[in-house]
Amino acid sequence: MSKKWQGSRYWYYLVFVILMILKLGYFHSQLNARNIDMNFLDYVITFGSLLLVSFWVLWLPQRARFIALIVLNVLLSSLIYADLVYYRYFQDFITIPVLLQAGQLSSLDDSIFSLMRFADLWFFADLLLLAVYFLCLVVLTKRTGGVRSADKHHLPMYHTSKWKRFISGTLALVIGAVLTFGPIEFYNRTWAVGLFNGNWWNLSLYNVTGLLGFHGYDLYRYNKEQQNSQADLTDEEMNEVKQFFDHKQQQALTAVSSDTFGQYKGKNVMLVQVEALMNFVINKNINGQEITPHLNALMRDSLYYKNFYHQTGQGRTSDADLSANISLHPLPKGSVFTRYPDHTYDSLPSVLGEQGYYTAAYHAYESSFWNRYTMYNNMGYDEFMSKNDYTMDEPIGWSLGDKSFFRQSLDQLTGIKQEPFYSFMITLTNHHPYTLPDSIQELDVGQFNGTLFGDYLQAVHYSDAAIGELVERLKEEGLWENTIFMVYGDHDNSLKEQTTYEAFLGKNMNELQMHQIMNQVPFLLHLPDGERSGVYLEPAGQMDIAPTILHLLGIESDSMYFMGNDLLNSRNRTVVLRTGAFATREHYYIPSDDYRFEHSSCYDVESGEKTNVNACEATFDEAKKQLSISDRVITYDLIAKLRSSSK
């Protein structure tokens, strides 16, 4: 054995570490996150975390070490790339709760494929070269009848004692721990104070821990949450929750004396949640055509909330469902539907069911997606029509086209001839990547033809036409004048290129305008007599839907645990988004990507200009508190405890 070869016994390990640092650096460059960079200490943390992930490889015999490094390279490269693709869609990273929903990814094939880039092959270039190298060795072996002695030196066959392997691996572990936790602790004691104690967004954690450190911490906090969910809150934490809901319930009690309370008692309720319907398309034309002509017409005799916000997180459509029907915030990680479907909630279908309503949910997709079947049973729906209950006579995109979906859903609803009813319908056609057959594309999208944005406009136009047909059918069936009809968007369209929106709107946009575009969805509320129609400018959110419905029906909600507001009897509302952003009548707050308050933006709503961030500080504290309280209620299953303590 040559001394030269023995001196390079760690060559493969060093190459592995360098390659992974390069991949993590390239990953970071693709994020384009505001106020988040990779400085020297961040690279130190990256190096340290790689040692922590791979130190055990140095304990292995040489051939096993070589194979283990290849496997680890494949796994880490796949994880990094999966995070990048996920980030392009959700602006977030994969977490343990998301992985528990991984069974749903098979339904996202088209969306995932559209998020991939040719340049992404760089993540796997080394593995491709390695595969070519081994292929050449195999070919050479077949031609020569075996591996020549000179070729054997290309493989790690040298001997290292167990004692030396143990020392090198242990040393890598110690060095990795120091280089990882030392800088993180420095950050935690300086500009990132409280990061690991607060309700922070994942991107801010990544800014401190790096990607591998983030996943390690995510595993730690998930296990901790699982343990904590079995524990009790402190008296102080529980009292804070009680005080919050005491105030909300007092507001609901006061609203009973309003002239709108019970004005539509006994009326039917139909709530339509439209996939990826955003507010910027309302009342907009392209090449002389209205994008949403039917919603525009519906606005004329409805309450239209122009500054209405989706409040979703990683759970996307299921989060919108949660906010609208249960009036709580989604969790910062994963979906409540999949994580806590067996907990106790106050929900529209259960409350209305107790009042004699027939309650039904309609969604032409697999009942297991987002764990709806289990969650809807808990929420008290009498009926849940899912994909197997529909005839696929208009296959579009993910499943059934919205026109046939509405038609078949209404056939079922009118067939039972039971009123009053609560009908919750979730559309699907307008889903990323927004692919429609050419035969039903009706818009001339001009410069956007052949782009995802152009496809989105086509899909919105189709869904709008489907809503128009639903409204006409309700009128034909004699239900329109006896039904409170509402329609809203569930979340953004995941198309985030500012230049595209500027080209569509024909103007430059600042940070505030872009943030509002990506978070505002339409909400139209049509009352049976067409009363109170008009445009409402005060901010509102999806959590306000359930309290508003119960108020109109004259159902007292002062004993329920809703976090939203009755839109007809509340002023100076604060609409808090899952990211920590919030909107009031006076201010709009946008958190920095690093979640440091001093780096964040506070805008004056009236002027649209940025103001001193301290103007948002008091509301920032309240918003953070509200998110924390909602998380406690869900995670610790507090509603049953709150009910028993109030008796």
What does this 3D model show about the protein?
The chain is α/β, with parallel strands linked by helices and 647 residues long. Helix content is 48%, strand content 10%. It has an eight-stranded mixed β-sheet, with helices on both faces. A five-stranded antiparallel β-sheet has the order 15-16-17-18-19, covered by helices on one side. The longest helix has 29 residues, at 62-90.
Largest sheet entry:
8 strands, mixed
Low-confidence stretches: 1-8, 149-153
What's the overall average pLDDT, rounded?
89
Number of strands: 19
What gyration radius follows from the Cα positions, in whole Å?
A: 28 Å
Secondary structure category:
alpha/beta
Distance between the termini: 82 Å
Defining key terms:
23 helices; 8-stranded mixed sheet; globular; 19 strands; single chain; 647 residues; disordered N terminus; alpha/beta; 5-stranded antiparallel sheet
Write the layout of secondary structure elements.
Elements: H1 3-7, H2 11-31, H3 40-54, H4 62-90, H5 96-99, H6 109-114, H7 125-144, H8 149-152, H9 162-189, H10 202-228, H11 235-255, E1 268-274, E2 285-286, E3 289-290, H12 293-299, E4 303-305, E5 308-309, H13 316-326, H14 336-339, H15 348-354, E6 358-362, H16 372-379, E7 383-385, E8 395-396, E9 399-400, H17 402-416, E10 421-426, H18 452-476, E11 483-489, H19 498-505, H20 511-519, E12 523-526, E13 534-536, E14 540-541, H21 545-553, E15 575-576, E16 582-583, E17 587-590, E18 601-604, E19 610-611, H22 617-635, H23 638-646
Parallel strand pairs: 1-10, 1-11, 4-13, 5-14, 6-7, 6-10
Antiparallel strand pairs: 2-3, 4-12, 8-9, 11-12, 15-16, 16-17, 17-18, 18-19
Helix pairs in contact: 2-3, 2-4, 3-9, 3-10, 11-22, 17-18
